[in-house]
Amino acid sequence: MMNGPDLGSTAPSPAAQDEQAASGRDEKENNPFAEYMWMENEEDFNRQVEEELQEQEFLDRCFQEMLEEEDQDWFIPSRDLPQGVGQLQQQLNGLSVGDVHASEDILSKSNLNPDAKEFVPGVKY
């Protein structure tokens, strides 16, 4: 009986099979083509990838449109004002209010009485 053909081909017990599964053997070890199984459904895989790419492109377009709309809400003088208004703005920026010498010149040439009473509308003097 020891020399019989059944001795070398003993099937593993169910407990031994559970141990193999629990020992962390990958699907690759059981099936050498596991990493290529996606090719079995290549058309579905391609369709799924195309849908993901189209969705990403759609989201990018929406985001870009949102940024453009936001830019339109902001007031940017160089973009939103006519050309002549920009020149006027530059001229206004060049003016100063606190020029002491110019105000003294105006006062020296003035005909107004500095000692006059303050004008109040509707009051007769």
Automatic annotation (TrEMBL):
Transmembrane segments: none annotated. InterPro entries: PAIP2-like, PAM2_motif. The keyword Ubl conjugation applies. Residues 1-33, 106-125 are annotated as: Disordered. One of its GO terms (cellular component) is cytoplasm. Keywords: Translation regulation, Ubl conjugation. One of its GO terms (molecular function) is mRNA regulatory element binding translation repressor activity. GO terms for biological process: negative regulation of translational initiation. The keyword Transport does not apply. Belongs to the PAIP2 family. This is Poly(A) binding protein interacting protein 2B. The lineage of its organism: Eukaryota, Metazoa, Chordata, Craniata, Vertebrata.
